[in-house]
Specification:
Structural class: mainly alpha
Membrane topology: Multi-pass membrane protein
Keywords: Membrane, Sugar transport, Symport, Transmembrane, Transmembrane helix, Transport
Low-confidence stretches: 1-13, 353-359
Number of strands: 0
Number of helices: 19
Mean pLDDT: 82
CATH superfamily: MFS general substrate transporter like domains
Strand content: under 5%
Shape: elongated
CATH class: Mainly Alpha
InterPro entries: MFS_dom (IPR020846), MFS_STP/MST-like_plant (IPR044778), MFS_sugar_transport-like (IPR005828), MFS_trans_sf (IPR036259), STP/PLT_plant (IPR045262), Sugar/inositol_transpt (IPR003663), Sugar_transporter_CS (IPR005829)
CATH topology: Growth Hormone, Chain: A
Pfam families: Sugar_tr (PF00083)
Domain Major facilitator superfamily (MFS) profile: 27-359
């Protein structure tokens, strides 16, 4: 039996009272919509780079190898430095933007970091939509990456701070759900846009990123700030009231959690060098886990499959339409599997705690 851990939490580990209110459901779901922009980008790029008109305009070398040279493998046909720069520039930009985003999120609040991410993403989507040269595409991708960096950094934090402890796992996976919905929507768009005759289909596909950008911008504009963010900005009265509202309990019941947040906020403010602080011995287990968990997730290769799905299916002999349709099917399964996770995550955690308590 592990000391301090019981089947019902026992008040340890920050398990405070809280109900699943309509207000917290709306705020968490709207906040989690920030995942749409990341998901849409994952799903859209592979389909666009398999469209002949797009390759002909911006990457003629790849286009001519694809059309005329049947002796090379699919990898050799797509082995192009500029095309690689187009696809990878977003992720390089997102990496550096996420480092800056943490400071912006802390100073101005989670909601405004989400809004800024959506605004920058919108700018990149418009630039890609109206691109006439490959340099415009790459600059647009960089802007998309900055938007993704801000959103991926701030959205999970927002949802975690708003969600009651009991439902935090499920509500956090809503962010993952919005990513999978974004991927599915992008695959669906890519399947239909090549059939357009009035306008280039690839422009519609790339411009479609404006929709999730506008969703997160409008949502974040109306969303309240989290109690944690309000405390960081020196607004304890507003923070206590917001915490009471999102938990749906009395002032007395919310007081313990408020004190915990206040103490954690004070401890965070006392840290002079946060980047150096995470390297301290006492923080090493948290650092290792926070690095290993997402690393192992990425090493499964699932993002590569989702990103290059149409190209991968073409490389094994599928025609263009069949490859795009196969990507839609893959995206559909991805969405359905995420619903299974939402249903099971908190139940599984509860069962693990019960086993730990009794054994």
């Amino acid at each position: 039996m592990v000391a301090g851990v019981g089947p019902n939490g026992g008040g340890g580990g920050g398990e405070y009272p809280g109900r699943f209110t309509g207000f917290v459901a709306v705020t968490c779901i709207l906040g989690a919509m920030g995942g749409l922009i990341f998901g849409y980008d994952i799903g859209i790029s592979g389909g666009v780079t398999s469209m002949a008109p797009f390759l002909k305009k911006f990457f003629p070398g790849v286009y001519h190898r694809e059309i005329n040279d049947r002796s090379h493998s699919q990898y050799c046909k797509f082995d192009d430095f500029t095309l690689t720069a187009f696809t990878s520039s977003l992720y390089v930009a997102a990496f550096f933007a996420s480092l800056v985003a943490s400071t912006v999120t802390k100073k101005f609040g989670r909601k405004w970091s989400m809004f800024l991410g959506g605004l920058i993403f919108l700018s990149g989507a418009l630039l890609n939509m109206f691109a006439s040269h490959v340099s415009m595409l790459i600059v647009g991708r960089i802007l998309l990456g900055i938007g993704v960096g801000f959103s991926v950094q701030s959205v999970p934090l927002y949802v975690s701070e708003m969600a009651p402890h009991k439902y935090r796992g499920s509500l956090n996976i809503v962010f993952q759900l919005s990513i999978t919905v974004g991927i599915f929507a992008a695959n669906l768009v890519n399947y239909f846009t090549p059939r357009l005759t009035v306008v280039d289909g690839w422009r519609v596909s790339l411009g479609g990123a404006c929709v999730p950008a506008l969703i997160i911008m409008v949502s974040s504009f109306f969303l309240p700030n989290t109690p944690n963010s309000m405390l960081e900005q020196g607004k304890p009265k507003e923070a206590r009231e917001m915490l009471r509202r999102i938990r749906g309990v009395s002032d007395q019941e919310v007081e313990a959690e408020f004190r915990g947040i206040d103490e954690a906020s004070a401890a965070a403010r006392a840290v002079e060098h946060p980047w150096r602080n995470i390297l301290l011995r006492r923080n090493r287990p948290y650092l290792v886990m926070s690095l290993l968990i997402p690393s192992f997730q990425q090493l499964t290769g699932i993002n590569v499959v989702m990103f290059y799905a149409p190209v991968l299916f073409q490389s094994i002999g599928f025609k263009s339409d069949a490859a795009l349709l196969s990507a839609v099917i893959t995206g559909t399964v991805n969405v359905l599997a995420t619903f299974v996770s939402i249903y099971g995550v908190d139940r599984l955690v509860g069962e693990i705690k019960t086993v730990a308590y009794y054994y």
